[in-house]
Amino acid sequence: MTESSFDATHPPERELLDDCVHCGFCLPTCPTYQLWGEEMDSPRGRIYLMDLAERGEIELEGAFTEHIDACLGCMACVTSCPSGVQYDRLLEATRPQIERNVPRQRSDKLFRDGIFALFPYRRRLRAAAILGLAYQKLGLSKVAEKVLPPRLAAAQALLPPVRLRSAFAKLPRRVRARTPVRRRVALLSGCVQDVFFHDVNVATQRVLAAEGCEVLTPREQGCCGALGLHAGRADHATARAKDTIATFEKLPVDDIVVNVAGCGSSMKEYGALLADDPEWARRAAAFSAKVKDISEVLADLSPVAERHPITAKVAYHDACHLGHAQGVRQAPRKVLRTIPGVDLVDLPEAELCCGSAGIYNMVQPEPAAELGERKAGNIRAVKPDLLVTANPGCLLQIRRYLGDEIPMLHPVQLLAASIEGRDIR
Ligand code: SF4
Ligand code: SF4
Q1: Which of 159, 129, 132 lies closest to 396, judged by CA?
Q2: How far is CA 56 from the centre of its chain?
């Protein structure tokens, strides 16, 4: 028997590979198959490549790595597969194999290392925000887009309008419920979210308090490891997961609330990530069982805070890591429908990723751009007054291709505006 091309550390499991019956039902929802029509850039083709590698019939370097790198990890194939193939587990077993065993070109490695040296660190992101503000004031963005290599051009074009007061603001550690306490929750404030989308965290605390939740937001929390987990950097993800568990498990709360789809999906996976670690397996499983997206918490609580009308056609974009990876689709819609006057509409091709996908729009800028343009076109087609989506990555990506023509918010910001009677436009 030929030896597997994977190393012995958690390779993709044979039983999971065998679950795929090659029916092709997943093909229409796969963004890379939609773009290129290439079998090896479809879920079925990638599972076939994993199968060949597991049998030792293809090496990891070369075509194998190219097709796996081109996958967005959007998990649309998991939603659409009638056979219950766990492509999420297959991909999360495969990517660390590539990171460990396939040497990357020097420039590729430097670029990826640069991303991981910046994004998980709030202090560094704040320093980047200062530079970003100067950069935007000098109007360098348009020039840079023309002269920089594609990856750097894509990364700088994603920078949102920087407001230093928000970037350096600190969230209160404890926010009391504004009604008799119904739940006690802890909030993950995130890295990019805390620095560039601080207002979303503020809105989250306010809405939870208005709905009768006491909210604890520990200052010492760090990155949850989501970017590393989804990119195959297993050591990074594991270390971050342990730190996050150690910070939150001390708190006497019912739920650990997340308002970033990508972070929520990785935190719900800590139990699986640390299942083999005798010291952490039980703690990780207990932690993951408490993690909820903000929309899940709010949908479970019958509303007590008065809503003021917001008369607007609101398009809801399902972030892949909320809809596909966590299966949370109805809760945000249910919450948004509690706002009088909101006409909630779905997008055409709603299942297709916008091209953000963690670090994908920086490391694979060309397909990400095509998907971003396509998503922007689908948003324009429904002529909304507003777009809402529950992931900062999606907001940055869509803003890049839609510009400022349609205001964009996190759903909890819209709800906060309704509860507080504020105008959102
Ligand atoms: S992943 Fe699922 S839907 Fe896609 S080919 Fe395999 S069995 Fe069919
Ligand atoms: S995760 Fe997304 S891009 Fe990757 S194979 Fe599945 S549908 Fe295609």
Answers
A1: 159
A2: 33
Ligand 1 mean position, distance from CA 28 (Å): 11
Of all protein residues, the one whose alpha carbon is nearest to atom 6 of ligand 1 is: 20
Domain edge (last residue) among 84, 101, 118: 101
**Pair 140, 155 in one domain:** yes
Nearest Cα to Cα of residue 299 among 348, 254, 259, 332: 332
Does ligand 2 come within 6 angstroms of the Cβ of 284? no
**Substitution candidate for ligand 1 out of 15, 23, 41 with most atoms within 8 A of CB:** 23
Q: Is 35 exposed, middle or buried (0-12, 13-18, 19+ CB in 10 A)?
A: middle
pLDDT digits (tens, 9 = 90+) for 289-298: 999 999 999 9
Closest residue to atom 7 of ligand 2, CA basis: 30
User: Alpha carbon of 7 to those of 61, 79, 163: distances in Å?
Assistant: 13, 29, 46
Q: Which of 101, 132, 147 finishes a domain?
A: 101
Q: What angle do CA 38, 52, 108 make, to 5 degrees?
A: 65
What CATH number should be reported for the domain holding residue 84?
1.10.1060.10
Q: Give the number of domains in the chain.
A: 4
Please check whether residue 334 lies inside any domain of the structure. yes
CATH number of the domain within which 342 lies: 3.40.50
Does 143 share its domain with 193? no
If asked whether residues 150 and 186 sit together in one domain, one would say: no
- Give distance in angstroms: CA of 45 to centre of ligand 2: 10
Three-state SS for 2-44 is: CCCCCCCCCCCCHHHHHCCCCCCCCHHHCHHHHHHCCHHHCHH
Summarize pLDDT for 81-131 with one digit per residue, the tens: 999 999 999 999 999 999 999 999 999 999 999 999 988 888 898 888 888
Domain around 366: 306-420
Same domain, 180 and 291: yes
Atom 2 of ligand 1, residue of closest alpha carbon: 81
How many C-beta atoms lie closer than 10 Å to residue 332's C-beta?
29
